[in-house]
């Protein structure tokens, strides 16, 4: 193993990363007589640690397509949310569990990865009472920006109308 990744206690604050209190670990294997790829999904956790253990393989890239809350999990992605990651043996990737992603086909060889799904019971409890996840959901953020844009446009229109009324009144 060539790299070291600290336990993600202090990362991913906005998705519960600072209150992680349990985890679930497992190994995935791809190759001959095993899985080929993995479909588009989100993990059942707040933070995912994915360590590429080996062995020799080609393919198997991860394709990420934006972080989403439950309500927006099936929405479109924006071009800037598209990110591909190529596994490197001995290295790990750490990402939000709400990041939508999948694994492309392992084209040859045998790929083995260790997954650690880190969870926060406090974050899960809080989430039940929240409706706006614009702190981390890309689609909540987009909707919020759109609401703000419409509100600014409506205010501008109101001001212009008022200005017009005043001009008419002063000309009478
Ligand atoms: O194949 C990988 O590297 C990722 C596996 C994965 O996303 C999962 O098991 O949830
Ligand atoms: Fe996953």
From TrEMBL:
Record domain Fe2OG dioxygenase: where: 21-120
UniProt keyword ATP-binding present: no
Taxonomic lineage of the native organism: Eukaryota, Viridiplantae, Streptophyta, Embryophyta, Tracheophyta
InterPro entries with a match to the protein in the record: Oxoglu/Fe-dep_dioxygenase_dom (IPR005123)
Keyword Nucleus: no
PROSITE patterns, per the entry: FE2OG_OXY (PS51471)
GO molecular function: L-ascorbic acid binding
Native source species: Papaver somniferum
Domain of life: Eukaryota
Keywords for this protein: Vitamin C
Entry protein name: Fe2OG dioxygenase domain-containing protein
């Amino acid at each position: 193993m060539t790299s070291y990744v600290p336990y993600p206690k202090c990362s991913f604050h906005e998705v519960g990363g600072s209150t992680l209190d349990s985890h679930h670990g497992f190994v995935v294997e791809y190759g001959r007589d095993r899985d080929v790829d993995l479909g588009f999904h989100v993990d059942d956790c707040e933070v995912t640690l994915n360590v590429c253990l080996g062995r020799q393989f080609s393919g198997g890239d991860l394709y990420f397509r934006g972080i989403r809350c439950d309500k927006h999990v099936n929405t479109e992605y924006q071009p800037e949310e598209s990110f591909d990651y190529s596994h490197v043996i001995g290295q790990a990737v750490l990402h939000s569990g709400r990041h939508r992603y999948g694994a492309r086909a392992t084209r040859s060889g045998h790929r083995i990865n260790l997954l650690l799904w880190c969870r926060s019971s406090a974050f899960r409890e809080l989430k039940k009472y929240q409706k706006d996840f614009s702190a981390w959901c890309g689609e909540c953020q987009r909707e919020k920006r759109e609401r703000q844009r419409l509100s600014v446009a409506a205010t501008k229109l109101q001001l212009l109308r008022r200005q017009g009324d005043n001009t008419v009144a002063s000309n009478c």
